[in-house]
Amino acid sequence: MPDDPELRPATVADCVAVCRLWNEIIRTTVITFTSEPRTPDGLSQLLENKALDRHPFLVASSRGRLLGFATYGQFRAGPGYAHTMESTIMIESGARGCGVGTGLMAAIENHARTQGVHSIFAGVSGENPGAVRFHAKCGFSETARLREVGFKFGRWHDLVLMQKILD
Predict the structure, then answer these.
(1) What is the pLDDT of residues 42-99, one digit of tens each?
(2) CA 54, CA 73: separation in Å to the nearest integer?
């Protein structure tokens, strides 16, 4: 179990470590359906865009080791969706089940509430039951299961949409 992880906004100095974690998940799992690796330059631009949109990108670390990250952004484009967000949370495999994700989720939910966010979604791989349980524990409810919408590693995967009303 990681020692009391520090939660803080990501900086450009975190980009290499975040990419290392994210790319390991991209290469080896269907937690995300993308197969395109992240780059430090691309992540640096993402952090800049998040700051401009006033959406956090938080990291959790312990003893200099990145344990995970979480962020959110508008669910769909357009003013009608301005109060509905979609979260992204990735936790290093050795830190899962230790409270790191719970701390990150609470932090982005608290930030979202201060920004007037009404609802937050999570798109979870149907092959990641641990993430479905995690989101349910955080108060999310399954709202839809989209059959065979993601293709990775030569096969189709379901996407589970989970939602939490924040106010």
Answers:
(1) 999 999 999 999 999 999 999 999 999 999 999 999 999 999 999 999 999 999 989 9
(2) 9
Give me the phi and psi of 81, to 5 degrees please: -105, 10
Residue among 96, 122, 10 nearest 60 (CA): 10
Q: What is the signed CA dihedral for 51, 36, 122, 116, rounded to 10 degrees?
A: 10
Q: What are phi and psi of 103, to 5 degrees?
A: -65, -45
Please give the Cα distance from 61 to 19 (Å, whole number): 14
Half-sphere exposure of residue 109, counting CA atoms within 13 Å on the CB side?
19
**Nearest Cα to 110, choosing from 162, 58, 46?**
58
Q: What span, in angstroms and rounded, lies between the C-alpha atoms of 89 and 82? A: 20
- Tell me the per-residue pLDDT of 8-45, one tens digit each, with 9 for 90 and over: 999 999 999 999 999 999 999 999 999 999 999 999 99
Query: Which one-letter DSSP state was computed for residue 115?
Result: T
Q: Who's near 89: CB < 8 A, 6+ residues apart?
A: 68, 69, 70, 101, 104, 105, 108, 122
Whole-structure pTM value: 0.94
Residue 96: CB atoms within 10 Å: 15
Q: Taking a C-beta distance cutoff of 8 angstroms, is the pair 54, 108 a contact?
A: no
